[in-house]
Every structure is written in C-alpha cells, then in structure tokens.
Amino acid sequence: MANFSGAIKLTDLNDFIAPSQACTVALNGSKLETNIQDGEVLLHKRAEVPGFSQTLPSGPNGSVKVTLHDCLACSGCVTSAETVLLEHQSTEELSERLADPSISVIVSVSPQSLASLSVELGKTIEATFKKLSGFLRSLGVLYVLDTVDSRDLSLLETASEFVARYRAQHGQNGSGKPPAKRHGQLLQLASACPGWVCYAEKTHGDYILPYISTAKSPQAVIGSIVKGPLCKRLGIQPGKVYHCTIMPCYDKKLEASREDFTTPGEQVPETDCVLTTEEVLQLASQKGIDLALLPEDHLDNVLHSAEEKRLYGWPGGSGGYLQFVMRVAAQELFGHSLPPGSLPMRTLRNADFQETVLEIDGREVLRFAQAYGFRNIQTVMRQVKQNTCRYHYVEIMACPSGCLNGGGQIKPHGDQAVGELLHALDKQYHDVPMRTPSSNPMVDVLYRDWVGGFPYSEAAQSLLHTQYHNRGQTSKPAQAIARDW
Ligand code: SF4
C-alpha cells in the first residue's frame, strides 16, 4: 500500500472511481494517470514538473497502488476546477467582507466543528461556542448562529418524506412523490453529504438520483433561513448579508455554490462562504488570538425567544438521519414506539457499514443501514444496480466515520491516533442535552411563521427541498465545471 502522507493531496474522488475511465489529476504539480482495477485505483506517474519532490512508491510496472479506502478517505479532495470555487471562500474573503461597512456578516457554526474545536481547546462544547461567538463578534460579525434548528428541520423533512413515499408505495393515502423503488420496495438515500451527492450526480446520474432524499442539508436550510426570514426580520436585503458557515469539510464549499441554493427570484447565494473548522483556527491564529484564553461571551439568540440559548444534540455524529427516520417511520407507519437512546446497530463488513432492523411480531418491516466512506458506498451502489439492496433507507456519508471525521476538521497532534481523536470528538459532540427535533420549539415557529405549512407539505417542499442534476463524466474546463455547481 502506498504511503502518501504529507506531500500529496489526492483530488476529486469521482475522477478516481469512474469505471474504466482513465483520467488525469494534478498532484502538487505532477501529473498522474489513473485507471481502475478490481476496486482499486492505480496511479501511473506520467510527467515530472519542477517543484514536485514526492517519491512515489512503485508497484509492478512502475505503477503506484492506492486502495479505494485510502484515496477516498479524504473529504478534503478538490479538483483544479473546484479550486476556482474554493478560492472565493476563504478567511481572506471573509475579512474583506468584514471590512465593508455596507455588508452585515452572519456566521452559522456546525456542531461537528464545535466538537472539533472543543477537543482542541480542551473546553466543553458550550464554553467553546461562547468563546468562538465572542471572537467572531470582535471581528465585526453581526450574529453567530448554530445549525441545530436547521438540522432539526432537515431531519423532520427527511423523515416526513420517507413516510410519505412509503405510504405512496403501499397505497396508504400517500401524498408523496412517486417513490423511488426497486424490487417493489422503497429505497431512500440520505442527502446531507455533498461529497456523496457530487459523486452520485457525476458518476451514477439518473439511475441513482431518484433514490436520494430531496430534503436540504442543515447548511442549506440555515442558508435559506438567514437569507429569508432573518433578513426580513432584520430589514436587510439578502444581497447585503454575507452568510458564512463553519463546517467539517471542504465539500460544503461546493454545496454552497450550487445554483439550487440561491434566494428565490434574486438568485443571491444563501451561503456565501464556508470555512472549515481548521480554517477558523487559522483565522484566530492570523489575528493573534488563542481561543482557549478568551472569556466566554453570550450566545446570540436571534432565532429564539427570550429563553437562554442552548445547544441541543441528537444521536449520530453525521446528523443522526438513520436514527431519526427509523423512529418516525416506526411510529407513523406501524404505531411502534422505539425506546429512547441510540438504536442498536449491527456491524456488517466493517465499522462504517452497519444496519438496524425493525421487526414487529417477528416480521421484518424496515431495514436501514449507514454506509460511510466510498468503499461502502460502492457496495450499496452495486447492490442497487444488481437489485439486491434490502434497505429501505441508507444514511450515506462520504467520509469514513462520518462528519466528525470530515477533511476540514482539526487534525490529530503528534502521535495521537485518529481513533483516539474520534473517540474524544464523539464524546464532546454528544455532551449536550439530547432533544428530538419535533420537540424543538423553534421548529414550530419556523413552520408556522416562515414555511406556512407542516413537514413535507407543498410549502415545505418548495422551501426545504432541492433537486439533483445528472452531471455525467466531464472533461469540461475548470470554469465550466465551476458553473455546474
Ligand atoms: S461525510 Fe460529512 S464531513 Fe464528510 S464530506 Fe460528507 S458532509 Fe462533509
């Protein structure tokens, strides 16, 4: 197995795993050719250019061998085309907007990023958020929000969509869209991970896209809230608000650039900039600030009532989609209440591929899986194509170990093992009060005052759902690919 530590950053995964497609990727100035053999990627060194100093370990015929598990494990991968987009989402860009008095900057922070920062600072997640809020406001940020409410909306929409599709499939007063199904059985795939969605759009196209939930991700939902009801309440034009999110991966920058995530009519991006967790730490360092030493400031309560703002969690480091959809489906479809706490999961091929089954009166009624990392995604794709997939719902995430292990998270220090860091992240992430999305009072307010409808209603579908595009394999120039996003 090749050891690529340090100097090589592998690029867009989709290019690597395109069946039978030889492609060229740029790695630190050197060009490599790729092709696929039995689920492995062979990288062939093609041309040396000045500045490339990595010595590539050689396999037979001078090839360099990387297993899919190795190269697809990095969600920080970007193509040269995608770099065009990423340059516009940086700490420098944020600083420029902060210096512009005509622009109001609002920042939304993901719970995975807070977990990573809190482990780094050695503080609780709540204390970390308070320090970070104070730091960002000291730079001129107007409000610092979190993505708990938007995650809850995303979970509710995903679960309601599943129930509607299941009912439509089984002729139970279904008002949902025609269900995506194979073998006469419903299949819904998670939609919150842009790494996975990008791969599905470019590599599997129309065959797989109908299976993907149309519910927007938490980032997309908070973008809609900020540029919609929040701008309205603040009396600021959406174009005068610069919305920046802090996320665990670079793929979220690409998601923010999708043409689907712009304000209705005005076509203003709902999220203008995404910074990774690590970039936020760099921003503090650029400003000469040690976040750990800052006092704890207040949390902004702009979306909430007078009650003190608190962080609430839900089981599952990648948002907890499987956990929530299974609970809602069990209750709504079968009148079956699942006990509180995390659902029992059975490990399949590896720790990143697990399943849970709901049996009622000895009969299996639902089978859900979570498949993290491209090795396991490939397995699910193969099952769907061969009509052997037995799952009703699959929580698919591009990163092995899910979002807590995103490519933009703060890396282990020294000889700290990745597993040890992930354990600490998981502990911090879940070290807040747990609350079901449906008992979040802000969710009721948003459905009533903004959406004007209930979960998966027509109004909710127009505001909280999206669509996908078959982008096919492409050899378009960088700017053209950037426009596709
Ligand atoms: S699994 Fe999570 S962190 Fe990784 S690419 Fe997907 S959304 Fe980003």
TrEMBL record:
Keywords on record: 4Fe-4S, Iron, Iron-sulfur, Metal-binding
UniProt KW Ubl conjugation keyword: no
Segments forming domain Iron hydrogenase small subunit: 415-472
Superkingdom: Eukaryota
Pfam families reported for this sequence: Fe_hyd_lg_C, Fe_hyd_SSU
Protein's UniProt keywords contain rRNA-binding: no
GO molecular function: 4 iron, 4 sulfur cluster binding; metal ion binding
Recorded family membership: Belongs to the NARF family.
Protein name: Iron hydrogenase small subunit domain-containing protein
Organism: Symbiochloris irregularis
Organism classification: Eukaryota, Viridiplantae, Chlorophyta, core chlorophytes, Trebouxiophyceae
